[in-house]
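Service request form, structural biology core

Requester: graduate student, group of Dr. S.
Request type: structure prediction, single chain
Budget code: on file
Notes: please return the result as structure tokens.

Sequence provided:
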Amino acid sequence: MSKIYKLTIENISENISLVRLNSSFIASRINFNVEEIEDIKVSVSEAMNYQLNLSKTTEVEFILSDNKIEINVINENIRDKEIVDNSSDEFAKMILESLMDEVLFEENKIYLSKSLKVN
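Core staff response, request fulfilled:
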């Protein structure tokens, strides 16, 4: 059964720390290790930075299943920004793809997912 946590925040750089803190707490709920939690926090930060200043608020949705976290960074104006429109955006995309299992840039959101590694 999935659990969903939603956070709607003012879209300012100071609130990225708040989202990072929440993402680490939520990821720890399904037993990600410290390194994986750090990957998730960095990825959420990059997704937030990518869409910073596009609107007044951003919604971050965390969906937890038994062995996977899915994160949607939702902003109504992402579609107005050309995806990967400069070198810093290209770098952010590379970071996201290297740290997460799946990364999708959709019309109004950035989708991230990471699964627990089975030992």
